[in-house]
Design a protein that fits this description.
The chain is mainly beta. The protein contains one helix and nine strands; from the N terminus they run H-E-E-E-E-E-E-E-E-E. The chain has a single domain, classed as Beta Barrel (Porin), CATH 2.40.160.20. An eight-stranded antiparallel beta barrel has the order 1-2-3-4-5-6-7-9. The radius of gyration is 19 Å and the shape is elongated.
């Protein structure tokens, strides 16, 4: 059974709950102290760019590191490591399809609001893909490629160290099967645990 309709509803719900507080809550989200690491995981729904309308689901995980002691104009700058395993809901015409990525790079988070923090990131790494073997090469059904992906999203603080994340990513798999790029795109809904202390902000 396809999960896309429920996924869209969940993503819309997250966006609504994150956008509403911004108009009334303006203050730093956290102070220095503790371990400057955020870990998380979630459910992903991706357009796999393997024929029109082809989508698959999977799971994702991430680790963010935000170093202390940066100049004030760099507050919010960190590094993210992220992995995707897009392995569920295979279309019937490509039963062996799987797309995995391991990527990392800079992330910038705006910590200006009490419960709401948008972010952008640009990640690079490696993508692994399983695919139907062509007739001309019956043993060729797996390959790896360099991948880069701009992305962004929203996190909403729900309880102590726990945040809900809604993420959108546009990937470029460089020169797959020729000179063009494979461009999977997708949404991830998940939760993060921020080891830094949460400070109750004042309105």
């Amino acid at each position: 059974m396809r999960l896309m309709p429920n996924f869209k509803l969940a993503f819309i719900a997250v966006l609504v709950t994150t956008v509403m507080p911004v108009y009334s809550q303006v203050a730093p989200a956290a102070s220095q102290g503790g371990v400057p690491i955020v870990i998380g995981g979630g459910f992903s729904d991706y357009s796999i760019d393997w024929g029109p309308g082809q989508r698959m689901e999977g799971y994702s995980a991430w680790v963010d590191y935000y170093p202390y002691g940066l100049p004030s104009f760099l507050n919010g700058l960190g590094v993210e490591g992220e992995g995707h395993a897009i392995d569920f809901g295979r279309p019937s015409n490509i039963p062996k399809m799987r797309q995995d990525t391991a990527i990392g790079g800079p992330i910038y988070t705006w910590n200006r609001y009490r419960h709401f923090r948008p972010y952008v990131k640009f990640l690079l790494g490696v993508g692994s893909i399983d695919f139907p073997a062509p007739v001309s090469a019956p043993n060729y059904s797996h390959d790896t490629f360099s991948v880069y992906g701009p992305a962004g999203g929203l996190e909403y603080h729900v309880w102590q160290h726990v945040w809900i994340r809604g993420d959108y990513e546009y990937q470029f798999w460089h020169h797959t099967f020729g000179t063009t790029d494979l461009t999977p795109t997708g949404f991830t809904i998940g939760a993060s645990y921020d080891f830094r202390p949460w400070v109750t902000a004042q309105r």
